[in-house]
Structures are given as C-alpha cells and as structure tokens.
Design goal:
- The structure is a homodimer of 401-residue chains.
- The first copy, chain A, has 401 residues and is of the alpha/beta class.
- In chain A, the strands form four sheets. In chain A, strands 2-8-7-6-5-3-4 form a seven-stranded mixed beta sheet, with helices on both faces. In chain A, strands 11-12-15-14 form a four-stranded antiparallel beta sheet. In chain A, strands 1-13 form a two-stranded parallel ribbon.
- Chain A has 13 helices and 15 strands.
- Chain A has two domains: 153 residues, Aspartate Aminotransferase, domain 1 (Alpha-Beta Complex); 219 residues, Type I PLP-dependent aspartate aminotransferase-like (Major domain) (Aspartate Aminotransferase, domain 2, 3-Layer(aba) Sandwich).
- At the A-B interface, helix 1, helix 2, helix 4, helix 5 and helix 9 of A face helix 1, helix 2, helix 4, helix 5 and helix 9 of B.
Chain lengths: 401, 401
C-alpha cells in the first residue's frame, strides 16, 4: 500500500540526520570515529549511578515510578535553581535538550517564519527547524563585533523586506557545535541588541558550557537578557546521555505554552531518572564527575590538536588548511581548500576506517563542503593519534601532496 | 513583555488537560481521588527494579548510559517482538505511548484534516490532535454492529462531502478510557472495513489490553489489519509510568517517517530504562507483576461496582442512572440524568474531598456533561468504599433525593 497521500505536509521537510544514519551503518567501535558527539563512556560513573538509584528506591520509593509533574520533578528543579541561580518557576525539565529545541520551535514557529542561526550550526536543531518548515537562514560573520552585528542585521532586514516574520536567533555560544568556537561577551551583547531591535527571541543552546578546559567563563546570553532568552541545558554531557534529560530556563509566560505543549507531547519527563539526576547534582557527584571529565577531555583535545599540527598539511597551492582551537566542548572544525569535497571524500575515509561528519550538513545555506567536524570526546588518546594520522594521510593523498 | 505575537498558530489550539491541572491543584493522597489514570503504587515491584537495574549496570555497563538508537534498543524491540509476535522491523520504541499518539498525529495530520474518534475518547489524545489543529469528530454509536458501522460511515461521508481529508480513526478498543468498554470483534472488523473503504488508517491505542479481569481477549485491530493500523502500547500500566516507555507497531513505510520525526523530537528514548524494561519482560517479572496487578485491580473494580450498586441512586424522575461494567482496565463511566452538570458539580465534590473527571472533557463534541469517569486503580479498596459512599451522598443531595 502507498501511504504517501496520508502524510502531513511537515513530513515533506523532514530530513534524516546523516550523523545518526552513520551510526546505523557502522559499528563506531570498529573504526576511528571522529563522527558523532558522544561523550566518552569512561566519564559515566557507574558506581555513583548504582548507589543513587538504590537511594532513590529506598528514600523516594514508589513515587519515583509513578507519573510525574509535567514541568518536572520539584527536587530536580530546585537543585538546578540553586546551582544556576534561576527561579524554580522559570525552569521546565525536558526529555532531552533536543526536545527543548523541538518544543521551542513548535511553540514559536509557523511554516515560513524565519530563524537566524550561525552558519554552520547544530544539525539536530536544523532538522527540528526544518521539520516545522521554518525558513532557516545561516549568518556568516568574522571576529569583529561590528561586522557580526551587521551580518545579523542584514539577514534580519532582508527577511523583513520579504514580509517574513522573524521568530528567534538560535545560538550555541559556548564551544559551538560544530565549530568549537565560543562567542565573546561583546558579541553576545550585540546579539541581544539585535534581537531586541527586531522583536525576536534568542534560543541559547548550551550543552557544553561546563566543559571548559582553559580560559574564563563568558556570561550566558540568558544572564544578559532573561526576558527574551530561552536557555537550553542538558545532562547528556555532564552526567550521561542515556537518561535523556535537559532543561529550559525561560520567562514564565513562555514556559506556560511549553508546559501545555509538553502535556500532549509526552505528559512528563522520565520520573525515576529525574530523581537520580537531582541527587547526582545535590550530593556533589556532578562536580566530581565534571572535574574528571574536564581532565580527560582536555587531554584528548590536546592530543587531537597536536596530531593535526604534526600530520595535517598546513596549506596547499597557496590555500591555508586551518582548524579551530576550542577552549572546551567536544569538537574541532577543520577547513580544507575550497576544492575539497568532504561529502564525496567521506566514502574514501570510511572505507579506510575513519569517520567524521561532513561540514556542509551543518550549513543551512549548503556551503562548507570543504569543512569537516572532528569529535575528540569519544575515542581514547591512542585511537585519536592513530585516527588523525590515518585521516591526514588520506587527505594528503586526496590533495596529491 | 508581551510574547503573544511570537507564538505559532498551533498554540492557539493548545488546551490544558483538566486532569493534569487537578494534580497541580490538589494533593491526590489527601482526598478521595477517582480522577487520574494512575496505576496503584502497590503494583510497582521496587525490588525487581533494584535487581534489574544492578544487572543492567553489571552486564550492559556504560552502553546503557550512552546515546541509543532512535528506533529503540535492540534488546527491547526483540523481547517485544517475541512477546507479541510482531517483526522487529515493525517496532518503534517511544518515550511514552502519549508520544506515540503525538508522533502519529504529527506525521499524518495537517490542520483541518479529519480524525474520527469514539465519543467519548482519551483526553490526552484529543489534546494532541487539537494541538495540530486536526478536525476531530466524535462518533456516537450503540451496541449493534450495523449501527456502529453506519455511524462511522455517516461521519466519514459528511467529512468527504465537506471536502475534508480523512486521515485516521483513533480507537481504544480494550477497556476504553474513559468508558471502560471493550469493542467486540465484529465491531473491530467493521472499523477495519470502514477505514479501508475511505482510505484511512487506524490508530489503535491499547495501554490496558493486558489488564483483563474477566472474559476473553479480543483480537487486536492490528492483528486484523496490520497494513493500515498503527498499534500503540505502553509500559505505564504493566510496569510503571515513571519509565516513560511505550511502543508503536506499524508497517515499515509508516515507521520510517516516525523514525525520522523522532530523530528531531528527542533523538532516542531513555536508554537505561529500555534495558531495564527489556529484562523486566525477558525474565518473567512482567508476567508475575501482571498477575498480581490483575488480582489487585479486579478486587478494586469489584468494590467500586458493589459500592455503586449499594449507594448510588438507580434512577430519578424516571431517568436511569447507569454505569459501565468494565472487563478490565482502570475506569468505570457513570451516566447521570441529562440535567446533571458534572463540570459545575466538580467544585462541590472537591470541597467535600472527592475528585473525578467530568465526562464532557472526553467528548470531542462537548456533550456528556451528565457523565463522569471514575478511576478504581489508584486508591485502596477501603478508600474506594469511603469515597463512593461520599460521592453517592453528594449526588443524592444534588438530585434532591
């Protein structure tokens, strides 16, 4: 039977995650995988989890397995409130921060409405935005704050002149996925000014914020403009992704719509997992685990950067080959000569046993075919060394170097 | 700041669950609550959970806390496949069966498309359908299969004559929520015939199917017409709702769209919880727990029916007062005289310390103000006795009996 005529119009804009489809095709442990954004399994404190789970069964009991409140379990909202200094009534727990992105889009965007993002941006967000038929516009910019603001204003003006409705700016200000870059404070202020000027909101997606390996924290966009910012957080990178828990900080008038939406989406987040997460934060396990994760990931990042420095060509035919130097997070972004096609090259690399994500998937405007995202959290240092050596040799061959 | 102009058109059709809002207002343990559809906390086998969780940590290890496959963990899909005789490739795990309803609607329904439901039907489904601006039409019918089919055909013909697109029939065939009634086999066949005649699908929502206290199982609609049925199942009533796990059985061409949609919704269901659920089914804990739950709920149902028989007036002014006699599930549906307003009466009852859900909330056409849904799974037999005695006396007073 052909079901095509039965599908909704939104389905015409669904697109598959090439990252998730890689996971369907290959066993990540059998190859050198710089694809994905998986935290290292070594950071999961299994014995802490076992102890906290047993405690929740003893102390919370059956209530931890019953239906829970749609806004999330009070204990968890309270520990997040005191950790991040945000009032409880401004906190909604989500069943993963991907759900945070999705529910914000659902509540704010009609087909054709404009979302401004950096170019490149997070693939899962682009998937969600497009699935609601948003008009996603990637904004390219350099390091200068005036140019940065001008680029966003130009994109906004263009959308307005086309009669489009502007809804929000989507930003991953800390150790961006995929670029690894951090937005300086002045840029954050300019983003807020621009949003205010055009009556837009900002969706600040910050799953890596606490994974900083050097340098100083930059104030969150939410802390600069809590009235117009929906801040998304996640337990995936600081505890474990298997719990599927995240949060939204936002003005209560915005959260109220999200709350009603979440009722019909899935009633409430996983309840037992929330109690475990609340204790993980409250008893200091989170901070202990964070220190260990930071030490581990810093080492991996350093190895990746060192190996790129040693083995990757730095230029060819007068064109630079460059990569970012992230102060935190999970990703380094590699830029190859304009003629390099990282989508086509992907099969060559995979056949040889090394995977990455082609950069063009992250670019809303389809550019960036000469870029790739390299993850450094998943593999051991030894495997990162071997993997980069292999990848560099394949790229040299491709470039006839 | 006023955010109104920023909200999507869908939000205009969001409506709050009066059931979930009751839980925000009152502590369910402090009153006689026939509201909600909560399973009894006494059915949660805490020691089984503790043991299985520890086993998963020992035997699956870190993988249980990593990101998982979007379609669900293979082990869980395999145990469901062998338990229910459905091929693995036709099984999608969902983050609750409420998500199953939501994702089916998202994938199938454009604003204005028609969904036929029984009248009354499950409130959470109505919330989800309306949130996508579906045109939901409740179909009323009697016990005769010809009349039943005629009612559905009349509703479908009417929609077609209005130029509407028919998408699916939503049915809860086993111990329906809220009515408690079970659709006989002949009615299921007629539903399938009707769906085929009009090129519609059927969404079969069956969270209570295994909670049967008397009588014989009726074949699922999915087993009669697997090519046009999306069957939704849930761990909430047979294991515990706090895990937020359910499943969809459907044709792979339908599941494929659901799979891509779920990628952007929340990437994957809770991973650790899925491993626990897989073992809960595989090692026989589920069946042991089901036997205990059935014995417990049968007792509670019997007490509720007995107390209604003893204390509730059977008629007034020549009008019958009737209630359903469910063979399973969690609910009895009470029909009072036409003039009775169960929405208005709700505050009287709550002030006196007893809660129910007004029947009109379940009726897509807004009728049924003289009905109420009574849950019997949540409270102890003793509290059911006291609660029905109180409710009956309040109703008698309201009816001047």
């Amino acid at each position: 039977m052909d079901y095509t005529h039965l599908f909704s119009s939104d389905t015409g804009s669904f697109f598959r995650s090439p990252v998730r489809d890689i996971f369907r095709r290959v066993d990540l442990n059998a190859i050198y995988s710089f694809a994905g954004g998986y935290p290292s399994a070594d950071t999961f404190p299994l014995e802490d989890f076992r102890r906290l789970m047993s405690e929740v069964i003893d102390e919370v009991g059956a209530k931890a397995f019953q239906y829970g409140a749609t806004q999330g379990v009070t204990e968890l909202r309270e520990v997040l409130s005191s950790r991040y200094g945000v009032p409880v009534e401004r906190i909604q727990i989500t069943s993963s921060s991907q759900q945070g992105i999705d529910v914000c889009t659902r509540v704010l965007v009609d087909p054709g409405d404009v979302i401004l993002t950096s170019n490149p941006s997070y693939l899962g967000a682009l998937q969600s935005f497009r699935s609601y038929r948003a008009d996603v516009r990637g904004v390219g910019y350099g390091p200068d704050p005036d140019e940065f603001e001008a680029a966003y204003r130009m994109a906004a003006d263009k959308a307005v002149s086309e009669g489009k409705r502007l809804k929000f700016i989507y930003s991953i200000p800390d150790f961006q996925n995929p670029s690894g870059e951090t937005l300086p404070l002045e840029h954050r202020r300019r983003l807020v000014e621009t949003a205010r000027r055009y009556g837009m909101l900002i969706v600040e997606d910050s799953p890596y914020r606490e994974l900083r390996y050097e340098g100083q924290d930059v104030p969150s966009i939410y802390s600069i403009a809590p009235d117009i910012t929906l801040h998304l957080g996640s337990f995936s990178k600081i505890m474990a992704p298997g719990f599927r828990l995240g949060w939204i900080f936002a003005h209560p008038d915005l959260l109220d719509k999200i709350y009603v939406c979440k009722q019909s989406l899935d009633l409430c987040p996983p309840v037992f997992d929330q109690y475990v997460a609340a204790r993980f934060v409250a008893d200091g396990s989170l901070d202990r685990n964070l220190s260990k994760s930071i030490a581990l990931y810093k080492g991996k990042r350093d190895v990746l950067l060192e190996m790129l420095e040693q083995t990757m060509p730095h230029d060819t035919d007068g064109e630079d080959i460059r990569w970012t130097h992230p102060e935190g997070g999970l990703f380094v972004f590699l830029k190859l000569p304009e003629s390099f096609d990282s989508v086509k090259f992907y099969d060559v690399a995979l056949d040889a046993g090394v995977a990455y994500v082609a950069g063009s998937f992250f670019h809303p405007d389809g550019s960036g075919r000469n870029t790739m995202r390299l993850n450094f959290s998943f593999m051991t240092e030894q495997r990162i060394r071997e993997g980069i050596r292999l990848l560099s040799s394949l790229i040299r061959k491709e470039l006839h170097l």
